[in-house]
Amino acid sequence: MDEAGELEQAAHLCGMTPETSMPNRWPHNAVLERDVREEKECCRSVHLQSGLPYEFHTFSYPYACLSMTFDRKALADESKTQWEMITKSPFEGRRLCFGQLVFFRKKSATRRTLEPNMSPGLFLGWRIDPGLRYRGVLRVLDYQEYRTKKNALAVDVPQEELYVEPGPPCFPIAFARDKDLKEGRDSSVSEFPEIDLKELPFPPEGGVASPSTPSGPKGRGVYITLERIIRFKETPGCKGCAGTSSKHTQECRDRFARLVAHPQMKKSMTKQFHVKLTTSSRPKAFRIDHWRKHPLQHCSHISLGA
Question: Where are the domains of the chain?
Fold first, then answer.
């Protein structure tokens, strides 16, 4: 392992005893060193293409590393990518260029009611949560904040609320700096173009609204009553059937739906199913678990219609 102090500290935190080598001397992990070199070259390329200042390398380097992980073949199995080998599934998120112009749904208390709901932004990468999990959240730089206040405010945006105009990617920061360079002006004080807001219809749950299709009325769920629990027995592991909760598990609901929808059950359910409870011995607060422990105290007669 390399002699870098941060690597030694990370190894100690993991309970490992590192064996370090001298810097720039053999032996070292040649494959790892090559990967790091490629990541740096990729970072320089995407950063130059975006036109963003050097301070944004804290975003461009993770972007470069993740982008290469999505496509680079794994050493253990060349039929899979490195991301697929680690997470057991291919990356299914959106693939955009670093610094590319996007529009995101901005929710702000200062936004006026009838103002367009899409603000311009610059794509910075993907948010990766602990456990190397991608949960559909993207990192976006608020273009208006950066243009007016030079505020490097990166916001988390669900990928369903991100809109990209069709066509080749646009890099407004790079275009402004190139224009100043061609005209002989100082590119460090470039004036970035103003980009109008956009209005796009979003459904309440997020994402671009699609044309409505007639789907018909939604069917109602099956009622899990006391009569049906007595008839079809309890679902193992369901607290609703056990009487300790008011909600049944999804497995329990699916089971009762299959039982009720069965042809033979439908035929027998057309006949009356009686459960008569005596009012003299019934407790004030009737509970199904109390009924199971003392059935004879509460039921005077249980009969299936013949």
Answer: 5-189, 226-304
